[in-house]
Amino acid sequence: MAKLILGLVGEMGSGKGTIAKHIIEEHKGSAHRFSTILRDILDRAYLEQSRDNLQTLSTILRKNFGEDLLAKSIYHDTKKDEHDIVVVDGVRRMADILYLREVPHFKLIYVDADIKNRYERIIKRGENADDAKKSFSEFEQANHDESESQIRELKNYANYIVDNNGTFIELYKQIEDILKENLQ
User: Fold this and answer.
1) Cα separation of 93 and 150, whole Å?
2) pLDDT exceeds cutoff 90 at 167
3) Which of 19, 58, 106, 119 could staple 5 via S-S, CB 3.0–4.6 A?
């Protein structure tokens, strides 16, 4: 079986991590996140892993080392990964998929969810230091940040669009259908 690379794109709180976790647990896949690189640097510098710090660091790195810096790293990580199914979580920009589209069997999945569902998920999970304190108004404003600006456009390049406004079962069914179609 050829290695399947699934790039996950979606606005914050859309369910990308939930999909990655499902694939890891149910299909013995692996996952790579764009934000892991940034989180590693913030940890090494003893800086808080806030959304603002992640965005600032990403902007600095891309400005000084090229828009495709993180994409190149993820590309090489996925090529070295020996799992049959590899998830790339957190695709945000066109530059992120340019390299990945060169890998055979790469599929881009856009995860769609309405803003109220996404807000509730962000608050509940508290992944970043500043998430749990965020008001709905602040969350709406954050959807216009530079790091979020290109995500909606990538929907036009997706091989699949999944709707994550329902139950886990409904989401997993959509993912299983995609896997079934691509693992034949």
Assistant:
1) 6
2) yes
3) 106
